[in-house]
Every structure is written in structure tokens, then in C-alpha cells.
Amino acid sequence: MNGILYDGKSKTLYNSDDENSYIMKFKDTATAFDGKKKEELEGKGKLNAAISNIIYDYLAKNGIKTHIIKILDEESVLVKKTEIILVEVIVRNIAAGSFSKKYGIEEGILLKNASVEFSLKSDELGDPMINESQITAIGIASKEELDYLSEQALKINSLLCGLFEKAGIRLVDFKLEFGRSASEGEIILSDEISPDSCRLWDIDTNKKLDKDRFRRDMGNVLDGYRDVLRRLENVGQI
Ligand code: 5GP
Questions:
Q1: End-to-end CA distance of the chain, in Å?
Q2: For 152-206, how does the pLDDT look when each residue is reduced to its tens digit (9 = 90+)?
């Protein structure tokens, strides 16, 4: 493997042979609460890679521009080099997590519309929520870029709600990251989409199939991830 460019909490980025791309390798490390809770879950990297690859392929086929160039092996993908935009875009369909806590809305309540929010990408500061005027004031992104991120996020939400519904899964909420592509000068979807970055509940029982099992010490974390992968693979075969 080539030199490490960046060692993150759940993925490592390596230089590739081409200056416009790098290798993204999924790790088995599970973290929560900005890295304060940490554990190795053997096999998580492969599961998240497989799930994220199915989702990214589906999004690309439906017109979303993403950073994926090609799948290299069970844990690694070749991705386009981007300058990451330092905000996380969070989309919610159902109240849960920090939304429920902050606004006093019972977990599980269906929201009247999908909500989009931004948080500053900073473990040190605990990824604080940030509004559009603050983002443009600091110079993280322009108003036009933020409008594009919101539009893309809602489009991705519609596509993913459809995909997960076919898999018998409710897409409660999720986090997206975007980057400015170095070679093409456009904004593309980056990072991963997996049970690490989404809340996914069984459509009939509301059983949690995502990282909340780890965050909340519910046990059998990877059983949920395996279930998500199996169901998404089955959707592909319909
Ligand atoms: P909440 O704000 O309720 O904690 O999270 C909302 C959604 O975004 C959840 O699906 C959660 O998994 C995802 N999310 C929020 N922040 C992060 C983050 O820093 N990393 C990852 N992987 N997912 C996040």
C-alpha cells in the first residue's frame, strides 16, 4: 500500500499512483461521541465498504456525482481527490438523536418535511450545528454552494428513502459530506454512506440496525450491519 495521507476515525486515506485520486480504506474501528468511545469491531470495515459501495452505485446510476472511481478490494475504493467542504450535511425524516434531545421531540415522530441542517466538521469542537449565514461569514462555503448542497442532500434523501423502503428499512436520518473535485472543479458527494453515518430502523419493528447499537451499548452491533447488507443485496436481485 502507498503512503498514508490521512488516518481518520473509521477510514484511512492513502496516496494512489495518480495525483488526482487516492485510496480510501474502511477500518474496523468504531467510534462515537467525537472519538471518546472507541472499539475494534472485526469485519466492520468490509461490511461498511460493501454497503457504501451498493449505495454509491445506486446514487451514481441516478445522476448523483460522487467521488468513487472504482472498487479496489473488499475494504478499499479508489476515489477522486477532493478538497473536503468542512460542513456535515444532516438530513432527517424522523426525529431521533440530537434532534430529539435538542428540540424535545420524541424519538420516532415522523417529521412533516425532511429537515436539512449543517454542522461544522470539527471533533475538537464536537461538530457544532452552524447556520448558513455563519458558514458564509467564516468562508467555509458560498451561498450558492450551500444551496447546491441542500438540493443534492434532498435529492439523495428521496433516492435513499426509496432504496431502503424496498429493503424493508426506514431511513431515519443520515450525514453527508461533499468535496470540491480537484480535477473537475465541481462539488461531488464524498466520504461514505453506511450504518455508521445513517440511522436505519426495521420498517415493521423499528429495530435499530445502525451505529446507535454501539453508541447506546445495545450489543450485537454488526448483526444490524449484516442485516442491512443482506437486505440491500436482495433489493439488487429483485
Ligand atoms: P445526530 O445529530 O442525531 O447525532 O446524528 C444525525 C445523523 O447523522 C445520524 O444518522 C448520525 O449517524 C449521523 N452523524 C452525525 N454526525 C456524524 C459524524 O460525525 N460521523 C458520522 N459517521 N455520522 C454522523
A1: 37
A2: 999 999 999 999 999 999 999 999 999 999 777 899 999 999 999 999 999 999 9
Q: What span, in angstroms and rounded, lies between the C-alpha atoms of 23 and 15?
A: 6
Entry pTM: 0.97
Q: What is the mean pLDDT of the chain?
A: 96
Residue with the smallest CA separation from ligand 1 atom 20 is 197
**Is the shortest distance between the CB of 77 and ligand 1 below 6 Å?**
no
Q: What is the mean pLDDT of residues 105-111?
A: 98
Q: Is 26 in the pocket of ligand 1 (CB under 6 A)?
A: no
Cell numbers placing 85? 467542504
| Angstrom distance (rounded) from CA 153 to CA 175 | 9
Cβ neighbours of residue 27 under 8 Å, at least 6 residues apart?
8, 9, 10, 11, 12, 44, 45
Of the candidates 118, 154, 115, 116, the residue with the CA atom closest to the CA atom of residue 137: 118
Q: What are phi and psi of 209, to 5 degrees?
A: -120, 20
Quote the CA–CA distance of 223 and 236 in Å, as a whole number: 20
Residue 180 CB-half CA count within 13 A: 11
Q: Tell me, what amino acid is at 16? A: S
CA 61 – ligand 1 centroid, Å: 25
> CA 81, CA 16: separation in Å to the nearest integer?
10
